[in-house]
Amino acid sequence: VQLVESGGGLVQPGGSLMLSCVASGFTFRRVTMGWFRQAPGKEREFVAAITWSGVTTYFTDSVKGRFTISRDNAKNTAYLQMNSLKPEDTAVYYCAAAPRATTNEADYWGQGTQVTVSS
Asked: What is the C-alpha to C-alpha distance for residues 93 and 13, in angstroms, rounded to an integer?
Protein backbone atom coordinates (compact mmCIF):
# COMPACT_ATOMS: atom_id res chain seq x y z
CA VAL A 1 0.00 0.00 0.00
CA GLN A 2 1.25 3.45 -0.86
CA LEU A 3 -0.23 6.91 -0.36
CA VAL A 4 1.72 9.76 -1.92
CA GLU A 5 0.76 13.34 -1.08
CA SER A 6 1.71 16.43 -3.02
CA GLY A 7 0.71 20.07 -3.27
CA GLY A 8 1.99 21.47 -0.01
CA GLY A 9 4.01 24.66 0.23
CA LEU A 10 4.18 28.18 1.53
CA VAL A 11 1.14 30.41 1.09
CA GLN A 12 0.08 33.77 2.46
CA PRO A 13 -2.88 34.09 4.81
CA GLY A 14 -6.08 34.10 2.81
CA GLY A 15 -4.52 32.05 0.06
CA SER A 16 -5.36 28.61 -1.29
CA LEU A 17 -3.67 25.27 -1.82
CA MET A 18 -4.86 21.95 -3.15
CA LEU A 19 -3.35 18.76 -1.81
CA SER A 20 -3.44 15.53 -3.78
CA CYS A 21 -3.05 11.95 -2.60
CA VAL A 22 -2.38 9.18 -5.09
CA ALA A 23 -3.12 5.72 -3.75
CA SER A 24 -1.96 2.28 -4.81
CA GLY A 25 -1.93 -1.25 -3.47
CA PHE A 26 -5.57 -1.48 -2.42
CA THR A 27 -9.06 -1.09 -3.91
CA PHE A 28 -9.26 2.67 -3.63
CA ARG A 29 -12.84 2.98 -4.81
CA ARG A 30 -14.09 0.92 -1.85
CA VAL A 31 -12.32 2.82 0.91
CA THR A 32 -13.13 6.00 2.81
CA MET A 33 -10.26 8.45 2.49
CA GLY A 34 -9.25 11.23 4.82
CA TRP A 35 -6.80 13.93 5.74
CA PHE A 36 -5.17 14.62 9.09
CA ARG A 37 -2.67 17.25 10.14
CA GLN A 38 -0.07 17.72 12.82
CA ALA A 39 1.28 21.09 13.84
CA PRO A 40 4.60 21.46 15.71
CA GLY A 41 4.18 20.53 19.34
CA LYS A 42 0.61 19.37 18.86
CA GLU A 43 -1.09 16.04 18.44
CA ARG A 44 -2.27 14.82 15.08
CA GLU A 45 -5.85 15.87 14.38
CA PHE A 46 -8.54 14.84 11.95
CA VAL A 47 -9.27 17.35 9.19
CA ALA A 48 -11.65 15.79 6.65
CA ALA A 49 -12.92 12.53 5.20
CA ILE A 50 -14.90 11.36 2.20
CA THR A 51 -16.75 8.09 1.79
CA TRP A 52 -15.99 5.66 -1.02
CA SER A 53 -18.76 7.01 -3.23
CA GLY A 54 -17.88 10.62 -2.60
CA VAL A 55 -21.43 11.33 -1.49
CA THR A 56 -20.69 12.01 2.18
CA THR A 57 -17.98 14.24 3.57
CA TYR A 58 -16.90 15.13 7.09
CA PHE A 59 -14.89 18.08 8.38
CA THR A 60 -13.50 19.23 11.66
CA ASP A 61 -15.20 22.43 12.80
CA SER A 62 -12.18 24.66 12.31
CA VAL A 63 -12.07 24.06 8.54
CA LYS A 64 -15.78 23.92 7.70
CA GLY A 65 -16.64 26.35 4.94
CA ARG A 66 -12.98 26.76 3.95
CA PHE A 67 -11.82 23.26 2.99
CA THR A 68 -13.40 20.78 0.61
CA ILE A 69 -12.52 17.14 0.09
CA SER A 70 -13.07 15.22 -3.10
CA ARG A 71 -11.92 12.10 -4.91
CA ASP A 72 -11.52 10.68 -8.37
CA ASN A 73 -11.87 6.91 -8.16
CA ALA A 74 -10.76 6.50 -11.76
CA LYS A 75 -7.43 8.10 -10.86
CA ASN A 76 -7.09 6.57 -7.36
CA THR A 77 -6.67 10.11 -6.07
CA ALA A 78 -8.08 12.09 -3.17
CA TYR A 79 -7.90 15.86 -2.92
CA LEU A 80 -8.08 18.49 -0.21
CA GLN A 81 -8.86 21.99 -1.45
CA MET A 82 -7.91 24.54 1.18
CA ASN A 83 -9.17 28.11 0.84
CA SER A 84 -8.97 31.16 3.09
CA LEU A 85 -5.94 29.67 4.77
CA LYS A 86 -4.93 30.90 8.20
CA PRO A 87 -1.60 30.73 10.04
CA GLU A 88 -3.15 28.17 12.39
CA ASP A 89 -3.59 25.83 9.42
CA THR A 90 0.19 25.44 9.30
CA ALA A 91 0.99 21.75 9.76
CA VAL A 92 2.14 18.59 8.08
CA TYR A 93 -0.88 17.18 6.28
CA TYR A 94 -1.27 13.41 5.98
CA CYS A 95 -3.45 11.43 3.63
CA ALA A 96 -5.09 8.42 5.25
CA ALA A 97 -7.01 5.38 4.10
CA ALA A 98 -9.90 4.16 6.26
CA PRO A 99 -9.58 7.00 8.78
CA ARG A 100 -11.15 6.97 12.24
CA ALA A 101 -11.74 10.57 13.26
CA THR A 102 -12.59 9.80 16.88
CA THR A 103 -9.27 8.06 17.54
CA ASN A 104 -7.06 9.84 14.97
CA GLU A 105 -6.15 6.49 13.48
CA ALA A 106 -6.20 5.03 10.01
CA ASP A 107 -5.31 1.81 8.26
CA TYR A 108 -2.67 3.44 6.06
CA TRP A 109 -0.83 6.75 6.00
CA GLY A 110 1.03 8.85 3.51
CA GLN A 111 4.40 10.41 4.25
CA GLY A 112 2.95 13.89 4.76
CA THR A 113 3.28 17.22 3.01
CA GLN A 114 4.14 20.50 4.72
CA VAL A 115 1.70 23.40 4.54
CA THR A 116 2.95 26.73 5.86
CA VAL A 117 0.67 29.76 6.03
CA SER A 118 2.68 32.89 6.66
CA SER A 119 3.15 36.41 5.36
From this structure: 17
* Residue 91 DSSP class: E
Three-state DSSP state, 89 = helix
Angle formed at CA 81 by CA 49 and CA 39, multiple of 5 degrees: 70
Cβ atoms 57, 48 nearer than 8 A:
yes
What does the alpha-carbon distance between residue 3 and residue 10 come to, in Å, rounded to a whole number?
Answer: 22
Residue type at 52? W
Half-sphere exposure of 112 (CA within 13 A, CB side): 12
Residue ranges, the chain, pLDDT below 50: none
